[in-house]
Amino acid sequence: MNSPQELTPAVPAVEAAGGRFRLDRRGLFRAGSGVAAIGGMAWAGKVLEPTATAAGSAGDPDLFIGGTDGWISLPQTPAIPPFHPDPLAPDGLSTYIFGFRNLTGMSEAQRLAQKNKAQHTAPLFWVPQYNDGGAGFFVKLTNLGLALRPDLFDAHTLHWHGFRNVIPFFDGEPSGSISVPSGRVFTYAYRPRDPGTYMYHCHVEDVEHVHMGMTGMVFVRPLQNETGATGAPVARVAGNTAAGAPMGYIYNDGLPVSAEASTAYDREFAMFISEVWAESHWADAHIQLPEWSDYRADFVLLNGRAYPDTLEPNGSDVNPFAPPASATTPTAT
After folding, report:
1. Which of 13, 60, 88, 313 qualifies as a cystine partner to 24, CB 3.0-4.6 A?
2. What distance in Å separates the CA atoms of residue 15 and residue 34, rounded to the nearest whole number?
3. Residue 260: which residues within 8 A CB-CB, separation 6 or more?
4. Which domain holds residue 242?
5. Are 296 and 254 in the same domain?
6. Taking Cα atoms as reference points, which of 320, 301, 283 lies closest to residue 73?
7. Domain count within the chain
8. What does each of the 333 residues of the chain score in pLDDT, given as a tens digit?
9. Are 294 and 301 contacting, i.e. CB atoms less than 8 angstroms apart?
């Protein structure tokens, strides 16, 4: 399942081997027309070309995620002129975002068609606690680019917040690991040993990228779901259909389900709270630089929704590892 493949290395932000100048996109933006010649040296435009490849684990990943941009709908009243609703937004939408999208099970053509279809918040997924001797969990990330802002060549990463990686190579913090330029892919390898609730996010230009929507939830489910314990049957999320089996366990408590301290549960809900500062989203859509020290939250979102959308029914259950056919069918924009 997991055979080696070539992986894209991180690209230095300022200077590469051999003294070749490389400019990050913030420096490029501020320099303006001066980037054509810097210190008498012409910029060749190959900022994102890799200088080497790195071998790692891959094959068919457990999950395939793409980074891109898109639009979402937030309540259009009260208006916050000129920032909200954004006059560039397509009909029925209001706010420009960066985000991730689940590409698992898609063909190459279907994956490419997801550009400018980012979601807020990022796709929810879960992983089993690592069992010594197992293969681990593999997430492939591709950078689809930004449809509205092709002038931005931001790389993307996946940083699993609070997760202890054995090596920094898969951490997602770009100064010490791998970042993924537009048009390239990288496969992260995880061995999650601590059950619990985590968040993940892009760690490139992280103040901006996280706020723009590149963040989501991930659960690490305990081994007890699969092994059970005395008086604690294997969980339903692990395939047990027997009457009386709990949906799952939060931790490896080793207790019978009848015990007061048991972490067995029968219903599961994810709640992810985030914020939107309308001016910053408008600024990225209109080729401006937001002043992040002026930050203030205009909208508070619960699972990507603001009131009154929070009163609408939940969406249908979706298995992130086997999306329904409708989720893998390209649609016109």
Report:
1. 13
2. 18
3. none
4. 222-266
5. no
6. 301
7. 2
8. 433 334 444 333 333 344 444 445 555 444 444 443 434 444 444 544 555 555 455 468 999 999 999 999 999 988 999 999 999 999 999 999 999 999 999 999 999 999 999 999 999 999 999 988 888 999 999 999 999 999 998 999 999 988 887 788 899 998 888 899 999 999 999 999 999 999 999 999 999 999 999 999 999 999 999 999 999 999 999 999 999 999 999 999 999 999 999 999 999 989 999 999 999 999 999 999 999 999 999 999 999 999 999 999 887 777 888 876 555 554 433
9. no
- Written as one letter, the residue type at 129 is Q
Q: In this structure, is residue 312 part of a structural domain?
A: yes
The CATH number covering residue 295 comes to 2.60.40.420
Assigned domain for 71 exists: yes
Cα–Cα dist 280/326, whole Å: 32
Full-model pTM:
0.81
Omega of the bond leading into 192 within 30 degrees of 0 (cis):
no
Q: How far apart are alpha carbons 278 and 85 in whole angstroms?
A: 8
Task: Write the CA distances from 13 to 37, 56, 205, 220, integer angstroms.
Answer: 18, 23, 11, 33
Amino acid at 225: N
